[in-house]
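pinging the channel bc i need a second pair of eyes. not urgent but kinda urgent?? the chain im working w is below, pasted from the shared doc
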Amino acid sequence: MVVVGADVHKHTHTFVAVDEVGRKLGEKTVKALTSGHAEAVMWARERFGAQVVWAIEDCRHLSARLERDLLTAGQQVVRVPPKLMAQARASARTRGKLKRPGFPGGSGYWIPIKGWSVRYAS
């Protein structure tokens, strides 16, 4: 199974795909618009097939449209609670450097595994 995590911002979303053991498989940045979300879905389908789970931080002011577009496209979406993200971000930080999820040194914490409490979006 491939998990695609999202780093959502007001104008862009960056997606990083990882496998079951957390190896980075690919990365894609798109505009935070429905057309960009469709581009991300096409990228994931072409590169990784149909068995993709999208892990989205549950900050709906930035992720609501993305979540809605993914569900409309028939994708499986899980919401990762912000509290989990905050703890993971704090542990992944190095003084003076910004560590982004899915990038060297800051990946893996947003994958819904090891008994984390995630909610499937519907």
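so The helical segments are 34-48, 60-72, 82-92. and The domain at 2-120 is CATH 3.30.420 (Nucleotidyltransferase; domain 5). — does that match what u expected or am i reading it wrong
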